Amino acid sequence: MLTSLFISLIASAHAVSAAPAQTGSRCDLSKVTLTIPASSSGTPLAAPIAATPEFVGVGVGTQNYTCNAQGTYVSAGAYAELFDVSCLPSSDSYETIIDIASAAWSIAPASWTAAKVIQAMAELKNPSVLGQHYFVTNAAGGLSPKWDFTSASEAGHADAFVIGAKTGDIPAPTNPTKNIDWLSLSAASGDLATQVYRLQTRGGQPPSTCTVGSPEIFVKYVSLYGEHFKAIV
Fold first, then answer.
1. Confidence at residue 19, expressed as pLDDT on a 0 to 100 scale
2. Model pTM score
3. Is 83 left (phi over 0), alpha (psi -120 to 50) or beta?
């Protein structure tokens, strides 16, 4: 059962941690750094505003696309569950856990949608769930990404979310036709964080062409998310 697989995945992330010091319900990330790569293409990722992230999470879900009049796919947002991997003992462990999560998600049956994963984790009250990632309509009528912890790790805090504005966008260093771009974002609203990174992406890219009028598609992806300067009030 996929639920058991994800529980095992996140349990393994915590089991390999070397009993780090706790800060509330989080681990000590004072020695963790997120590697921000340079790229000869795209817009460079913004430099971190803090030496270490406040937390690190793995997003498991889908990137969603619709087919435009030119026969190419355009983004219609994303939907993902966010799992806490802050307790991993080093930054080097993040790529490994991303690969494990990606392998688990790639073999999941089609009936296991991102929404079903989120529902299953909510029913289990899994303490490793940080929250959800999805898109909301912005003032200009477009879509903006949101990271929302109000239903899980920060339940009861209405401002425990961040809506991001992109500040950097580079192709994935490995297999960019399959793996979605790496991003840096700043907070447009919400008190969860002032800066967000999407790194170590696996999957998420749509096919290069589509038939006009075809239905929306949902492409599985896994990503590492790091957020800085959490300020829950």
1. 38
2. 0.89
3. beta
